[in-house]
Amino acid sequence: MSSHGLPARRGWSRKQKRLAMIAGLGLVLALATTLVLVALRDQIVFFYTPADIIERGVEPGQPIRLGGLVKEGSWTRQGERNSFVVTDNGADIAATFTGILPDLFREGQGVVAEGSLLPDGSFSATNVLAKHDETYIPKEIADALKERGEWRPGEALPEGQ
User: Cytoplasmic face: residue ranges (predicted)?
Assistant: First the structure.
């Protein structure tokens, strides 16, 4: 007993100290994860194919990457305004881009466009990325085409496949 008439308090056991340290580290890790996610919230851009957009009902205005093939006969240009259709052979999304397209941009070739959906369901691109050479299709596009059964056997595999 202590001098105040209370039972003497012993220090924390080794097990209690370890448990407190693990709980503290877990709290710090959760806080750090939350801070990173909040900081990156506006930087995260998801990749979708045209069929994914239709199936998942992507909200207009949300920044996304739209990937697929530039549909044959769909590309028109008026000054710097380019209109084209991105397809995954399962669905089509009309897209527009104002600016100079990459030299490698062609109909029938792979494309990844960054931007957002408009309320009418079309896509407004702020950046357009084209394929690298004749044998390259972006991995995300190739994977999506394979998943949908649209991969044509004569096509080259993407890098790393």
Answer: 1-18
